[in-house]
């Protein structure tokens, strides 16, 4: 595969996953707030179901980008990862702790310092930063995972189907144990469940699907419908369960949807290339900053007399656009002091 195709394919996955994250965080609020089975709720549910592929796509792409290239020095690898993840994680944890305090003051609901400390120790200074905490574990384990994959390749030359079977098995075990332990593991262990996806991304990178685009798109839409229907069934018939199984990133329907959309995005779409290349450098920054604009837009739109469905449809592009503009503004001022914050 040529370098330009490689970059475009990776950027397509990165951009779609970033858009899906914004859609997810807007629509998830609607799922919890709107009246169950209303038109607005079903739209939020479908958007939420569509966007659940976001984190699996990010993890699979990370696997392709980190496990395939040779690691010349483990020390150099870790040094680069510290700059890539650890520093932004520390800076943004501080920022969002301050943001949490500010929100508490605005709402006249002060947040105690002990709560901020608990959030940090639990790997969630703000709701979206859990992903970076999970990535710390994946990055730490990358040299060992790469060695394992190379050993398997030398001895057995497994196909992508082998790694897909591992991912399906892990997802099945997660499904069987979901009602037992849910997501109660401490954050240093979160990465364990994502190792199969990490390996799957590397295994599938250079292997195109035998299925056509229409078949893959139809399968993806079917999985989205299944995710949405299962979510409705659980909320309507089993409301005692706090977490919705089909929404979980490690659930079977989300795994199937992620594989379908992965193969769709692996094929370079040249007509979208200019937009993809424009957005791709800002994806990490958009991921990090978008909750600020999510909170602000929610506060502002709540004061406008429009229906819930319209608010949600307005909020999605608004949050994404403001987040993108913030990243572009940062690049324009080109401050060395803040370089690690938005660097993606």
From TrEMBL:
Location within or outside the cell: Cell membrane
Superkingdom of source: Bacteria
GO molecular function, one term: O-acetyltransferase activity
Keywords from the UniProt entry: Cell membrane, Membrane, Transmembrane, Transmembrane helix
Any one GO cellular component localisation term in the record: plasma membrane
Keyword Cell membrane found: yes
Principal location: membrane
GO biological process: enterobacterial common antigen biosynthetic process
A UniProt-annotated Pfam family: Acyl_transf_3
Membrane-crossing segments per the record: 12-30, 50-70, 82-102, 129-149, 161-181, 187-205, 214-232, 244-265, 277-294, 314-333
Topology term for the membrane: Multi-pass membrane protein
Ranges for domain Acyltransferase: 10-329
Alphabetized PANTHER family for the sequence: O-ACETYLTRANSFERASE WECH
Similarity comment text for this entry: Belongs to the acyltransferase 3 family.
Name this protein carries in UniProt: Membrane protein
Native source organism of the sequence: Bowmanella pacifica
Top-level taxonomy: Bacteria, Pseudomonadati, Pseudomonadota, Gammaproteobacteria, Alteromonadales
């Amino acid at each position: 595969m040529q370098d330009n195709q490689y970059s475009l394919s990776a950027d397509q996955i990165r951009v779609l996953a970033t858009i899906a994250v914004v859609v997810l965080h807007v629509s998830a609020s609607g799922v919890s707030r709107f009246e169950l089975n209303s038109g607005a709720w079903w739209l939020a549910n479908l958007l939420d179901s569509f966007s659940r592929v976001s984190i699996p796509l990010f993890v699979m792409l990370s696997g392709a980008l980190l496990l395939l290239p040779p690691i010349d020095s483990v020390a150099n690898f870790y040094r680069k990862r510290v700059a890539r993840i650890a520093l932004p994680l520390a800076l943004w944890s501080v920022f969002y702790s301050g943001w949490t305090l500010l929100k508490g003051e605005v709402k006249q609901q002060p947040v105690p310092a002990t709560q901020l400390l608990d959030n940090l120790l639990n790997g969630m200074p703000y709701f979206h930063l859990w992903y970076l905490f999970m990535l710390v574990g994946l990055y730490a384990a990358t040299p060992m995972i790469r060695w394992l994959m190379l050993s398997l390749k030398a001895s057995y030359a497994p196909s992508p189907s082998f790694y897909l079977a591992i991912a399906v098995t892990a997802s099945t075990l997660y499904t069987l144990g979901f009602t037992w332990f849910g997501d109660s593991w401490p954050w240093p262990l979160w990465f364990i469940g994502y190792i199969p996806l990490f390996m799957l991304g590397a295994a599938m990178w250079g292997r195109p699907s035998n299925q056509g685009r229409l078949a893959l798109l139809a399968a993806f839409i079917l999985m989205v419908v299944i995710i949405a229907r299962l979510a409705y069934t659980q909320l309507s018939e089993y409301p005692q369960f706090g977490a919705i199984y089909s929404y979980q990133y490690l659930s079977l329907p989300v795994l199937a949807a992620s594989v379908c959309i992965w193969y769709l995005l692996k094929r370079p779409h040249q007509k979208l290339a200019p937009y993809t290349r424009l957005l791709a450098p800002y994806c990490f920054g958009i991921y990090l900053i978008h909750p600020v604009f999510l909170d602000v837009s929610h506060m502002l739109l709540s004061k406008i007399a429009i229906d819930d469905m319209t608010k949600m449809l307005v909020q999605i592009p608004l949050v994404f656009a403001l987040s993108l503009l913030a990243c572009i503004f940062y690049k324009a001022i080109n401050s060395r002091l803040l370089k690690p914050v938005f660097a993606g």
